[in-house]
Write a sequence for this structure.
């Protein structure tokens, strides 16, 4: 889309991603003078223009993966929080699985209230293209399920090698085994603080999620990965009562 807006002639993108972010990008570029239609479907059509407006005002959509991360954090800690400036219709599969795991959720127009259960229930998830369960939530949801009652099965259908964080969670006392695209999580009663390393953005968020319920102190290294995808992460966590601080960056 970005390459095509200033290209001469018409461009058609087939088998396009359908995530809300694609629609948001289309709307933003169109406000700048681009001619794009079809975002949110599997066919996007772009008619090239000579130039774009340099100064526009546009409100970017809320981050649905950040919202899902905070839901999982409330779930693993039996927390009671309210998320504002969210779009619940963007995270329906996450909300459904949180409720299946035992969380109580109330939804308003742009607000989600969640009460984490005293004991999470095991659930199975399969990542799928939007509007299915998002691959970017797989690691964080897995971290939450490490303390659920029973065994959960997670199937990663989108990206390979997305279980790099599992060995770090197991160092904290999790019981996860991986075979190919499938992870089996046997719920444990307790996780324990440890020195762990974030292997990537969402894997790092998974380690922080696990740390919320772990006994003792957890130190997460390579936090530059996490900071790339979560703005003011530690400040937001501090506001909901998490004893967390950042050092070295």
């Amino acid at each position: 889309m970005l390459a095509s807006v200033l290209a001469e002639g018409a461009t058609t993108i087939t088998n396009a991603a359908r995530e809300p972010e694609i629609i948001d990008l289309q709307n933003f570029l169109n406000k700048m003078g681009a001619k794009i239609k079809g975002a949110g479907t599997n066919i996007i059509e772009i008619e090239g223009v000579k130039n774009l407006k340099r100064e526009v005002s546009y409100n970017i959509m809320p981050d649905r993966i950040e919202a899902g991360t905070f839901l999982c954090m409330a779930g693993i800690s039996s927390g009671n929080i309210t998320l504002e400036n969210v779009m619940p219709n963007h995270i329906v599969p996450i909300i459904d699985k949180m409720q299946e795991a035992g969380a109580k959720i109330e939804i308003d127009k742009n607000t989600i209230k969640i009460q984490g259960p005293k004991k999470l229930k095991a659930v199975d998830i399969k990542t799928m293209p939007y509007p299915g369960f998002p691959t970017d939530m797989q690691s964080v949801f897995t971290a939450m399920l490490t303390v659920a009652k029973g065994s959960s099965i997670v199937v990663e259908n989108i990206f390979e090698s997305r279980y790099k964080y599992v060995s770090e969670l197991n160092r904290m006392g999790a019981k996860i085994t991986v075979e190919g695209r499938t992870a089996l999580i046997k719920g444990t009663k307790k996780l324990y603080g440890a020195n762990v390393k974030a292997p990537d953005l969402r894997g790092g968020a998974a380690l922080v999620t696990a740390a919320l319920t772990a006994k003792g102190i957890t130190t997460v290294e390579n936090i530059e990965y996490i900071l790339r995808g979560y703005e003011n992460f530690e400040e937001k966590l501090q506001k909901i009562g998490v004893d967390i601080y950042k050092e070295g960056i």
Observations:
- The longest helix spans residues 64-76.
- The radius of gyration is 20 Å.
